Amino acid sequence: MTTAAKPSHTVSIHRGIRWADMKLEVDLVRQLLLHIEEHATRPISDLDSIKIDGWTEDQIGYHVVQLKDAGFIEASISSVPDNENPDLVHVIYSVRRLTYKGHEFVETVRDDTIWRKVKKKGKAIGAMTLPALVNIGAGIIKSQIGL
Predict the structure, then answer these.
(1) 119: nearest Cα among 24, 19, 32
(2) Does position 14 have pLDDT exceeding 50, yes or no?
(3) Given a cut of 80, is residue 25 above it in pLDDT?
(4) Left, alpha or beta for 24 (phi > 0: left; psi -120 to 50: alpha)?
(5) Phi–psi pair at 10, nearest 5 degrees
(6) Positive or negative, the Cα torsion across 110, 115, 117, 118?
(7) For the chain, domain boundaries
(8) Are 14 and 88 in contact (CB under 8 A)?
(9) Which of 13, 31, 38, 54 could form a disulfide with 19 if both were Cys (CB 3.0 to 4.6 A apart)?
(10) How far apart are the first and last CA of the chain?
């Protein structure tokens, strides 16, 4: 009998301060997906302490939540109020795997040259959302293979 892995990594977020002020950092999205692809080596993994140089635990935790919401990863996410500080919420996550949608995005933007083109085009048209970046990446790849 197997038991479900419990999320163990805690990210502390202040209500209305840091969490609300977080911005979607597309470079972190890409780095997280590449990290998850590399480290989630079993059909159901348990990545609960992701560290990526240059990014804080809060930023990583926020983006884990966003990637789950976008359908790019399967993860368990809980938020627990702090007993001593009512303005503090602890976000606990455990990433299980990339979804098919997550794999598609990683394959589209894996190459650094293509990623730079995707970001440049996204910025130029003012569309730095995940769905827009997926479409831009797919368009760039299609043009490179002559479709």
Answers:
(1) 24
(2) no
(3) yes
(4) beta
(5) -105, 130
(6) positive
(7) 9-99, 111-147
(8) yes
(9) 13
(10) 49
Number of residues that make up the chain: 147
Nearest in space to 118 (alpha carbons), one of 106, 67, 44, 7: 106
Q: Which of 76, 75, 74 is nearest to 100 (CA)?
A: 74
- Taking a C-beta distance cutoff of 8 angstroms, is the pair 93, 76 a contact? yes
Answer yes or no: are the C-beta atoms of 11 and 60 closer than 8 Å: yes
Tokens of 98: 């990339």
* Element of type H or E holding 76: strand 73-81
HEC assignment per residue over 88-121: EEEEEEEEEEECHHHHHHHHHHCCHHHHHHHHHH
The pLDDT-based confidence of 86 (bands split at 50, 70, 90) is: confident
| Residue pair 9/62 in contact by the 8 Å Cβ criterion | no
Please say if the pLDDT value at position 17 is more than 50: no
